[in-house]
Amino acid sequence: MSVSNQDVIKSSAAKQRDYYFDNVKFVLAMLVVIGHTYRPLIDESPILKAVYLAIYSFHMPLFILISGYFAKGYNREGQNRKLISSILIPYLIFQTLYSIYDYFVYGRDSLGISILDPYWAMWFLFSLFLWRLMMLPLFVNLKYPLVTALILAIAVGYIDEADGFLSLSRTIAFFPFFLFGYYLRKHHFEVLFSPWKRVVGWVGCILLVPLMYWLEFLSPFDLSFRRWMYFADPYESLGHPEWSAGLIRVGFIILTLIVSALVLAVIPRGKTWFSAMGSRSLSVYLLHGFFIKFYDALDVDDKYPGPTLYILATLGAIALTFLLSSPWVTNALRPLLQPRLRWIFRTSSQQEQQKLKKAAY
């Protein structure tokens, strides 16, 4: 039996792929969908709100940390082209589509499309583009990059004008997670892989919901935990204009890192039945909002309140994650998710010709 070169290449790629991170991305993508599904319902159920807060205590910061981990080749040749085709252009496409969709679904009086004011979940792509293109190349040349990023993340909360425009607050406040992920190596994650740490991780994850319930409803702290976890608002709008408000953000950053470590410890290391779907997590992130916004516009929480709705919402979010991470969806929508920009960029042969011309001079 002969083996073709293509089979060898596929086999080699499969061996090199780290399924652990695919598993992480799938879990986080599903939690993004579940969290957005729960958002219209959290005021109806304290327990559901506690689950929602538990999800938001780590899921986006951890997503950002993993994005930073995979940004190590930011200065390789062709990376700027990849950034434009895989992040910037999809952002422009979906920012426009969501703005139009919002206009019709919610019956807005006017259609507003603002490229510099990311719509809803599109802030992540906008911020990711800035982190990769501008902030990471700058910070890696600093003497104390993580300390500087942390100071800026704290300081931006004191600026009242730091809001949704340019995703300024989130871009700066979440950047320490991205930068921290950039400096992590595989052996740092492997520290979490021992059996007893997995047990600790499961115990911590189980206790996270009761902890969030206590913090939100029983603790003496006068905080809007949900809004603090968004990292999107200045301290004054959160009801804490005092100078010490930055310490609260530090506390949330520490909490997020601890919870993230607990979650990373329980995620399977090897190939699983959902690993392949994890490699398509971006399609879940970009597409799920069309379903969530339609569901939100129906006001189902007012028409069908109660535990049955919460269970159906959870099952629906899980099913939606499976659907949007399927190869059929990603292949059908590839022109939107991963547009080919040959009409913008030079081909490899054109680049070689350009280099030869320069060498001739």
From TrEMBL:
The chain crosses the membrane at residues 20-38, 50-71, 83-101, 113-131, 138-159, 165-184, 196-215, 247-267, 279-298, 310-333. InterPro entries: Acyl_transf_3_dom (IPR002656), Nod_factor_acetyltransferase (IPR052734). Residues 19-325 form the Acyltransferase domain. The keyword Transcription regulation does not apply. GO terms for molecular function: acyltransferase activity, transferring groups other than amino-acyl groups. It is found in: Membrane. Its main location: membrane. Keywords: Membrane, Transmembrane, Transmembrane helix. It comes from the Bacteria. The keyword Transmembrane applies. Belongs to the acyltransferase 3 family. This is Fucose 4-O-acetylase.
